[in-house]
Amino acid sequence: MQRDTIAAAPAQWKVLLVDDEPAVHEVSRLILRGLNFEGAAVELLSAASAAQARELLGRHPDIALVLLDVVMETDDAGMRLVEFVRRQLGNRDMQIILRTGQPGMAPEREVIVDYEINGYLLKTEITAQRLHSAVIAALRGYRHARSLRGGQALEGGRQAAQERDVELAEDLGEAVACGRIVLQAQPQLRLDSLRLHGVDLIAGWNTRRGLLSAEQVAARLGPGQARLQTMRWMLAQGVSWARQWQLEFGSGLRVSLPLIGEFLDDPQYLRELLQVIGDAAAPGLQLDLLLGQSVVLRAESSLVDAMTRLRQARVGFVFRDFGAATIALPYLSGLAFESLKLPRLFVEGVAAEPQRAAMARSLIALAQTLGATTIAEGVASDADAQFLRWEGCEVGQGPAVARACAASELIASLYRGGGAAH
Predict the structure, then answer these.
(1) CATH number of this structure's domain 163-416, picked from the four choices 3.30.565.10, 3.30.465.10, 3.20.20.450, 3.40.50.2000
(2) Residue closest to 47 by CA, chosen among 68, 61, 76
(3) Mean confidence (pLDDT) of the chain
(4) Which of 13, 173, 374, 408 could link 393 by a cystine bridge, Cβ 3.0 to 4.6 Å?
(5) What are the residue ranges spanned by the domains of the chain?
């Protein structure tokens, strides 16, 4: 009983689905919608490749279960991800269930013996009830594994985590002060004219634990000054880019930034964020904040008010998980996002894959109904760009659209002109 108390259920059980077939994600979402375990809802995260899964695992270290395909970008991508979780991350508590449509590539007998997995399912044999049962059993196993680390181990873990957070906060301060920042700009282009629509500023921090993304920084820091310091630095870069762009090209620039510290339901954090934005205001700056599923679900009761106050400070909002997140349509409509991002899951190969094309077509139509600009992320081919343009998607990001015009050279000129620290 004491162990169960120590391993109390989290607010949500995070389940990561890794599969390169869009239909698998959609069916799984339908089956698992509304599933609860011990009073907590199941949150389904999606990755279309092992590479995307690694990124999500970095952003969400509390993932309880991975439903993993074997054959994706390579024949052994799934098995390599298992090794990454167990050996590099050192995570033995996370449950991993293989789901494969090609059992010959990873025979059950060999995989169970050679790899540290917790289950094996054939896609052809999965029913709704079997998937429900497998998920519940895995979550129970995850909870039990965590309970075994209770008592002294839990207290030691908390102390170690606090020490790591202090160390990370110090690293972030040094990185900002010393310029140990890797800053990249990903252009957003209008698909009809190939004119620049804006840029996403993507930053990485060189710390003692390696290069960390904005999402990884946010996941490792609690609310407080370290997050605000990081957000203040990001906003300063946005202002610098906008000013330089205005000087060189005579027009404003739309800059999208990740929200460092997704705590808009915290009144103090919101006040301080508004102060930072006010201090950073500059002519020609059109600022968008990228919001993900976690902030939207976390702040349901107060997010509308927070977004209203930020809009009064001339801030726009982009929902970056459009189509891949479990968000009720009426609630999404009520938030009135200026832009909705189609994730790579629905974009890469869209012109050649009928199922992916149907999904992308319906999401673009829904975005139009909501009055939002659609931004396609990861446009990798001219055929995909043409398909998205015909279907009414306004903006694209990715190698295909970047090659199609001089935007890359224009953005590079900002570095040469000293537009942003990097």
Answers:
(1) 3.20.20.450
(2) 68
(3) 77
(4) 374
(5) 2-147, 163-416
Give the pLDDT score at 28: 86
Closest CA to 98 of 87, 89, 114, 90: 114
Cβ neighbours, 10 Å, residue 126: 18
265: CB partners within 8 A, 6+ apart: 298, 299, 301, 302, 303, 306
CA separation, residue 41 to residues 136, 191, 218, 313 (Å): 11, 39, 23, 35
Place of tokens 């991350």: 89
Phi, psi of 417 (to 5 degrees): -85, 0
Q: Nearest to residue 187, comparing CAs of 171, 198, 173?
A: 198
**C-alpha span between 220 and 166 (Å, rounded):** 10
CATH fold for domain 2-147: Rossmann fold (3.40.50)
Alpha helix segments (H runs only) across 221-370: 225-249, 267-280, 293-298, 303-312, 329-335, 354-369
Give the C-alpha separation, 43 to 16, whole Å.
8
Average pLDDT over residues 46-54: 87
Bridging pattern class, strands 373-377 and 339-342: parallel
Parallel, antiparallel or unpaired: strands 63-68 and 12-18:
parallel
Which residue, among 374, 302, 304, 352, has the nearest Cα to 332 in the 3D structure? Answer: 304
pLDDT for 143-178, tens place per residue?
888 877 654 444 555 565 566 666 766 776 676 666
Angle at 212 between CA 156 and CA 293, to 5 degrees: 85
**H/E element, 30:** helix 22-32
Q: Given a cut of 80, is residue 219 above it in pLDDT?
A: no
Q: Is the pLDDT of residue 416 over 50?
A: no
Residue at 269: amino acid letter: Y
pLDDT above 80 for 104: no
371 neighbors 353 (Cβ within 8 angstroms): no
pLDDT in tens, 81-92: 988 888 878 888
Q: How many helices (H) and strands (E) does the chain have?
A: 17, 15
Reading across the β-sheet that carries 36-37, which strands appear in turn?
Answer: 36-37, 40-47, 12-18, 63-68, 95-100, 119-122
